């Protein structure tokens, strides 16, 4: 039976790949998609979500726009990584479906309440919408199977030395989610930095000979240039699809239960995910933390999903 999923995201090149994985694998039933400001402003991330759904032939999936800024402070986008549009690189001039006439939080509430089975919420952007959902509609918690989020790290950050972009963009939202008591799974940089889009991987997507395959290759090619300029990486990591892959096939990503807290006040460490892998704090484990990945299986999964999408 397909897993009912809501994808909350801020497309973003790797979000786009995550969306294609979620629409191209029959083990997921994508109930809806909600957008948040992060990689770019809300209007751009929302438009990008609509364009990728159109590319995937999934315009029947409802899309709702969410929060345009974090709970505290101002938004800082990642234009250095994702470009002025948030999806620079490929030509995505596609007709798109209308947005849902409700907010992201309201769409999530309706979909979760209406689902006959508990829903998995996958978040691949800042956790602002998710925090607002839990804060304003706590009754939905009983209808959630779990929340899987791409963010944080057991090690270093990528925006500050210890702050990963999604968490650092809205640490207060992340703190609300991690204190929720819900089943949580964190897919952080320590694992996603191993899911590298090598030249051979990119060419495999191009060789599919379809528009989704070509666009995937062009997305990763642009991403490669951005990561080379910004971080000196030879090949770019594709973070967000790893969170979807974990939901589809738990054997691909290994997790361990651990206490995780969000640093909110540190001068140099605000936005850090403090992961107590060795039980030094004595706190109870509240998150299943990704610690390893079968890279080859991950790429086979993603390639197979994109291959099923319309030509």
From TrEMBL:
Single GO molecular function: hydrolase activity
Identify the keywords attached in UniProt to this record, alphabetized.
Glycosidase, Hydrolase
Q: Which residues form the Inosine/uridine-preferring nucleoside hydrolase domain?
A: 5-300
| Matching InterPro entries | Inosine/uridine_hydrolase_dom, IUNH, Ribo_hydro-like
The transmembrane segments are none
Protein name per UniProt: Nucleoside hydrolase
